[in-house]
Write the structure tokens for this entry.
Amino acid sequence: MNKFNEAKVLLEVRDLKTYFKTDNGILKAVDGVSFTVHEGETVGLVGESGCGKSVTNLSIMRLVPSPPGKIVGGEVVYRGTDIMKLSEKELRNIRGNKISMIFQDPMTSLNPYLRISTQMIETIRLHQDMTKQEARERAIHMLKLVGIPSAETKIDCYPHQFSGGMRQRVMIAMALSCNADLLIADEPTTALDVTIQAQILELIKRISAELKTAVILITHDLGVVAGMCDKVCVMYAGRIVESADTDELYANPLHPYTRGLIASVPKMDGNREERLFSIEGQPPNVIDLPPCCPFHPRCDRTCEVCRHAYPPVKKTGNDHYVACWLNCSEEEIQEAMKGGAN
Amino acid sequence: MTKYIIKRLVGMIPTLFIIVTLSFFIVRIAPGGPFDGERALPEAVKRNIEAKYHMDEPLIVQYGRYMFDVIRGDLGPSYKYKDYDVNTLIAVSLPNSIILGCMAMGVALIFGISLGVLAAVRQNTLLDYIPMSLAALGLSIPLFVFAPFLQQVFCMTLGWFPTTGWFMNDAPLRTMVLPTVALSFAYYADIARLTRSSMVETLRSDYIRTARAKGMKNSTIVFKHAMKGAMLPVVSYLGPAFAGILTGSIVVEQVFLVPGLGKFFVQSSFNRDYTLIVGVVIVYSVILIVMNFIVDIVYAYLDPRISYK
């Protein structure tokens, strides 16, 4: 049982749809994603490359490059207000202040032409009523918190004088310098080497606990999810196919895709002679998907109905949701087959 | 940095030396000479003239003599414009070219950068299409069409400006307007297009997304976060462009009768006026080298990742 279920709902994403107009047709990068983040909770968003994880989170902040991208439907409710309906000015008040983001590649995410101090101080002063000196002290305090040695002098460096891991620390410090209560971390460790990865994840975990910040962690590393997240959403082809508390999901994966993902994690104590399991095939092209389960060509338990209709989301246990026909009753399948035949 | 500047300044000397040497010999390779006309001069007269200008000596001696003069700052007498030396000709005409060039470049920069940024920020709207169509015209209409066109419209039809002249006709400043506009048009086109494309690229970069995610205002993002990076290609274009515009444009000078250096550039080579050709080349090279040097310094100022030692 997830201890955060009692906490207040911080962010609720309802039926979010973000499409991209391309020359080949409409690309449905995110097609009806819903999930909830409670205060202080860490939610993992996992899936293969191109399944819509990053676009989901850019959409939450309305940062999807437009054109070609467009958020065509859905609601993102943050503490009772729908972000999709806010004016540009109200939105700026939430960005960086209430909801912060850190990105995949720390090498390019900081402005190479401005000092770290300039970039941090401007963020702090943008959202908080502080003098330059106070903001500077706050920035130094944040840099110390994320473990930058001799922050008092390092703050006046330019980003290129820092290593990748250090820059990601700076990004985290900057993101959290305004007491954000939601941190969106978009594959924060993909561009870093393994030892630094562990340090950065540990840092996010420690700081989010210290500052009581909720975290949405985007990753394709199931090991990371197991260590960090309270709840996991598995995404496939722009939709969430299964979501559950982390322990529940690992103990009792219901969707064949989730099972495949878990089976493909190498195990240290496993038989080393065996080949590592992998899911056959490629993720589908999300342009012009037919109205069926997008996973059925790669699924080992496909049945007739999978080719005819998208499975409805079913609640199977305590906060465990799955979208797969295997978890539907016979009547529902019959119903869908009839609908598909028409 | 100071050390680097001194090093670069010293480095200019051999560069200039090579330029002078090469142009000294290259102009003499071209067939014909300064005193060849339609009708050949009598042998005795020609020998006399050549003796006067030391052209009867071996080439290497002439070269030594010329280099010695150049080091002292004397570019020699003009072979064509009798009674003038090259120093005087350049001293009289270069200031006019510099004034015109600076005005034109100023106009081109102001409009090029502001409209280029505007076009990038308002991509694919009317505010993008209009400045960019203007730039396309600037690139494609030759100056010898555009300049007379301006005269026709603004001098003959509207009568706002005098057709030709330079600082005269009781209205010194009004004579400058049309030459400036004509000369700046093509430079505006280049600058606007460069600014737009590099600004569009910069605005798509990751660190701009970070700035947006921080909640920065759009104007702050453009001017504080994107401007420096977006200006780099423009700055590197400006070095050679400045050198070109300062040394004058033959077309603008001919159409508007501006007494600039551009005329000598073209005329001296038709006349095989050896000293004037090399003199003008030296002026151009010095300006070009200095401009490129300034560009390098500005680069280091704009981009902290570049440092000179």
Remarks:
- Chain B has twelve helices and no strands.
- Chain B touches chain A at residues 124, 204-207, 209-217, 220, 224-225, 228-229, 302-305 (CB under 8 Å).
- The two ends of chain B are 6 Å apart (CA to CA).
- The longest helix of chain B spans residues 86-121.
